[in-house]
Amino acid sequence: MLLTSGQISMGISSFIVFIFTSLLFLSGYVLQQQTVRSIQAVIRPPTPSKSANAASPLLSLPSLRSDDAPPPKVRWDRLAYVQLITSPEGICEVLLLFAELHRQGSRADRLMLYPRAWDKGHGGGAAARRMLDLSMERYGVKAWPVDPFLRDSDPLDPASYPLTALLALTHYNAVLTLATPALLLHSEPLDRLLAEAPDSPVSFILTGNEVSSNLLMMRPSLAAYSRAAAELSSLPSTSEPVLLRSLWPGPESLLGSESLGEEQILGTSALGRTGQDDLEVLQNAAVVVFNDDNIPGPAIDVPLRILQQSQPDGDAAMIWDGLRGRYRDEWEGICGLELVKWKGKGQDNTEEL
Questions:
Q1: For the sheet containing 182-184, what is the strand order?
Q2: pLDDT under 50 in the chain at which residues?
């Protein structure tokens, strides 16, 4: 059967359309894979090489200051990452941070503070005790029991353990605490911040014009603790970061760009909303805090349709999914826990371990 010129022309046109459509698809696929690889490289940074000085608590660290003075010797045993745990599921949230600090070779102490009532069999449970032991044995974590801030407070109420208590840790020259759940991407900026902690008893970062609760830096002393404790006792309903900022309001208590600013403590709620390239923002981040408004942290097994309603648009969605995916993998792999069952919006999605 002979083809007409119209049929031949249509066949050629269809072939050309097919070729260009295929090329467009392939180019889009290649670009997508390059983006995915770039995201994976940032989300899962390579294991750092061990320094020759890694075994010593005294280590010379390049200074963050702009002057020409030689960098001081750092007493890492007098510096600490401290996390106050008030619920059993919080142990795993902190363990993921401390395991990554250990993997990246941070020399500062890693300290968990937990309610002393857990040692008496109240509230913690066997799984909580197992994870505390795992933290100490595998990742060099110190775990100290603490009493409620007020003598007559409920020892199992999270509100009984304010962050102000960290100012009483006078064994340390400086301590740093982070909001959880969070992923640590790069420990070096935080180590540098600890090594050259500002002189202010409490230091903050700002989100816009507001004090952020994502990171607090403290220089413990009995004088600072007494001052903050007295204020907290008289104003118990005030947000703690706001209260501490009111006690130390000067510019010297703000962590500026020369040390560590809000761009290095990235909240997932900001993805797709910064007006900048999200991958570049992520590359500069030291820590990612999961602070989305409408859904809980990645350890909660949220239905897919709810996740899709909450995720940002464009490439930010892949970054967002990748961060949550890494966190879930570590929750299951490091802590040995299953994801927590979703109970619905507005419900308490935590549960006993």
A1: 182-184, 287-289, 265-267
A2: 49-68, 70, 257-259
